[in-house]
Amino acid sequence: MKWFVIEYCRSSGDRTVREVGDSAEAMRLRFEKESTCADGVEVVALCASSLEGLTRTHSRYFCGREVDTLAS
Questions:
Q1: Within 13 Å and on the Cβ side, how many CA atoms surround 8?
Q2: pLDDT, tens only, 10-30
Q3: Dist CA 26 CA 6 (whole Å)
Q4: Do residues 39 and 70 touch, judged by C-beta distance below 8 A?
Q5: From CA 72, how far away is CA 38, in angstroms rounded?
Q6: For residues 40 and 13, what is the distance between their CA atoms, to the nearest angstrom?
Q7: What are phi and psi of 32, to 5 degrees?
Q8: Is 32 helix (H, G, I), strand (E, B) or coil?
Q9: Which of 35, 23, 44, 45 is nearest to 72 (CA)?
Q10: I need a labelling partner for 48 at 20 to 30 A (CA). Which of 9, 20, 61, 62 fits?
């Protein structure tokens, strides 16, 4: 299984997706991102067999566009 950390802007649908090595790294990065993210940005750590599978099971995070960084 693969771990992903997604930053998702609720208003625009923009997102960043980063694949990480394991659950500990995913949670560390999630909490780090949550401490600095802007209002209206959701940060989640999710596990899936592939990114394609994640796009099916958590489609709400993949409606907008992929960006390098979210505006603060």
A1: 17
A2: 999 999 999 999 999 999 999
A3: 10
A4: no
A5: 5
A6: 10
A7: -60, -50
A8: helix
A9: 35
A10: 9
Which whole number is the average pLDDT over 52-63? 96
Length of the chain: 72
How many Cβ atoms sit within 10 Å of the Cβ of residue 35? Answer: 8
Report the amino acid identity of residue 52.
E
Give the burial class of 41: count Cβ atoms within 10 A of its Cβ; 0-12 exposed, 13-18 middle, 19 or more buried.
buried
Q: How many CB atoms lie within 10 A of CB 15?
A: 19
The DSSP line for 44-68 is: EEEEES-HHHHHHHTGGGGSS-B-S
**Whether the model pTM is above 0.85:** yes
Q: Is 1 helix (H, G, I), strand (E, B) or coil?
A: coil
In the sheet where 41-48 sits, what is the strand order? 15-20, 2-9, 41-48
Residues 9 and 44 sit within 8 Å (Cβ to Cβ): no
